Amino acid sequence: MMSVIGLMTLTLLAIAAIATVMASNLFISSMWFGIFSLLMASNFFILDAADVALTEAAVGAGVSTVLFMGALALTGDKEVKNKLNWLAVVVLGVLAFALFIATFDQPRLGDPNAPVHMHVAPWYLEQTPNLINIPNVVTAILASFRGYDTLGEVLVIFTAGIGVLSVLGFKPKHRPVTSGEAFGEKVRGVQHHAILRVVGKLVIPVLMLFALVVQFHGKYTPGGGFSAGALFAAAVMLYGILEGADRSSKAMPQLAMLRLAAFGATLYAGVGLVCMLLGGAFLDYNVLWPDPLIGQYVGILLVEFGVGLTVTTVLIMIFNAIANRPTY
Amino acid sequence: MIFDWLSWALLAAGGFFVLVGGIGVLRMPDVYTRMHAASVTETLGTMLILLALMLHAGWDLATFKLFAILVFLLFTAPVSSYALANAALLGGLKPKLQVEDVTKEGKRP
């Protein structure tokens, strides 16, 4: 039964992907992209990857659609038709054919002898109750067993935020500039729609509360810093859309966001350094507390908080930078 | 037992309304009537299905979560319909109205 639903969502995914590419209006294209992400999230959920599904739904369908809209407002929503490049078509065709052939070598879905299930996964599943003792194995793997990878991801997100800020901060010389804040004061989001504002403001606190649950309950149920950060940023973006982006950037000033993002990443790396100072290896939480299990708990809590802080602030920073970009 | 039958009946009714909504979206002539058909799916259909699932789950944490989803949908579905209709109207889509084209004899063509 589940495989039937899975096949259905996969078919819809293919349709959504083709529609995304075919749409010549980029606005419609980004809407299709949101639908694609939502379908992908449900597909992840069917595969029992609830943590990934939560993140995909929050980031793919929620946050990135808003960011696309903001970017389209800055550029334009019509696709520029280029001449068909036959070399690219041939390369893509060959690549697609090779990937199609490669799928025949793939193990069947749920095959217990598949390479993924023979490598380190059984060890993680067996040892998580003994070494870390939290119910959600995904969080244990992300924050503790593979803490180096997650630290890398956080640094990548931080770098991406700084990159977007520096690109959007570019100003041409000798041109009259309307600052984004002045423009925002004129437009003020969708403030003239009373229904949207009232219901949207009802949603914002619930969304923030849910983000906090996802952040701090991530050791027991699906969730963690990444999805919580995206949800919290979505709440702030909703506020910016409802009340005007100048107010959202007044509530969450860019400089404070930048500092908090740096603080989140530093907190993560700092926990690792403290572990080294206490005589363990980098990101070896066992030494944080006399009881290694509590040490792991404290370490994961701090590290996930750092992840959540960085993701939230970087997403808010990008939204504010795009929505408040000066127009020339 | 009785809850089980009730839950299946509600599921069937919900499925029926979702199907009706789907047919309506395909068959209706313009945006506004299509949204009218889709709203059957997102209010009546979803509500019945969620109620059925709540009955099926019994007195459980899952029931509370389903109830929360129900309340959330009751708040957001009409608002998104309103936003969509408003955007369509502002974008210049006129509702398709039947024009009474009465001929001289007083008959419709």
The quaternary organization reads as heterodimer
Structural class of chain B: mainly alpha
Count the DSSP helices of chain A: 14
Determine the N-to-C terminus distance of chain B.
Answer: 57 Å
- How many DSSP H or I helices of chain B? 3
What string, H for helix and E for strand, traces the elements of chain A in order? HHHHHHHHHHHHHH
- Determine Rg of chain A (CA atoms, Å): 22 Å
Shape of chain B: elongated
Beta-strand content estimate of chain A: under 5%
Largest interface: A-B, 8 and 7 residues
Number of strands of chain B: 0
| Rg of chain B (CA only) | 19 Å
Mind summarizing the main beta sheet of chain B? none
Q: Bin the helical content of chain B.
A: over 70%
Number of domains of chain A: 2
What's the helix and strand layout?
The complex is a heterodimer of chains A (328) and B (109).
Chain A: H1 2-22, H2 26-46, H3 50-74, H4 86-102, H5 115-118, H6 121-131, H7 137-145, H8 147-168, H9 180-187, H10 194-216, H11 225-243, H12 245-251, H13 254-277, H14 292-323
Helix pairs in contact in A: 1-2, 2-3, 3-11, 3-14, 7-8, 7-14, 8-13, 8-14, 10-11, 11-12, 11-14, 13-14
Chain B: H1 2-27, H2 31-57, H3 61-90
